[in-house]
Specification:
164 residues, alpha/beta, Rossmann fold, five-stranded parallel beta sheet, 6 helices, 5 strands, 20% strand, globular
């Protein structure tokens, strides 16, 4: 049985770093970041582009599921609404997969510290901070496994996920 990890969390919580670590920890793994399916300039959010990104994500995940080389499929994206998770899950062929939907959580202090580090490194723009903080409460409402990332290393968080 394949394992499919759908990992969400607000911007700056550590999704990509944790998933990169998971990819190295879990055997025969593949990792997809949802942001890679919608990396455009200018970034344009319309009904058409929102549908397109979901189609892109589901196409790639379904291909990974079908591919015999992979036993562990790791996907991350912001996924701040249950409808996003449900739409993705409903478009996937998961009959031979154990699906784990996970939300990474952090308190405001830890999130500010992480995002400010990214801003200082030129990875993110400062406007991400307020948008990310505003989305934090949305993750508590989701039907996901919640993992508190406060004061934990990437390795500790990834290890916690492998034990689910």
């Amino acid at each position: 049985m394949k394992q499919l990890y759908l990992i969400g969390g607000t911007m700056g919580v550590g999704k990509t770093a944790v998933c990169q670590r998971l990819k190295r920890l879990l055997p025969n793994s593949v990792f997809l970041d949802g942001d890679w399916c919608w990396d455009s300039d200018p970034f344009c959010v319309t009904e058409e582009t929102k549908k397109m990104v979901i189609d892109n994500i589901c196409y790639l995940i379904n291909n990974f599921i079908r591919c015999s080389a992979y036993n562990n499929i790791i996907f991350c994206w912001v996924m701040h609404e249950q409808s996003i998770i449900d739409t993705i899950c409903n478009k996937l062929n998961v009959e031979n997969c154990n699906v784990k939907t996970i939300s990474l959580l952090a308190d405001e202090k830890n999130l500010r510290k992480r995002i400010q580090g990214d801003v200082n490194a030129g990875i993110r723009s400062v406007d991400v901070l307020n948008r990310s903080i505003a989305r934090m409460p949305l993750y508590e409402k989701l039907n996901t496994i919640k993992i508190n990332t406060n004061n934990k290393s990437i390795a500790e968080i990834a290890d916690e996920i492998t034990k689910l």
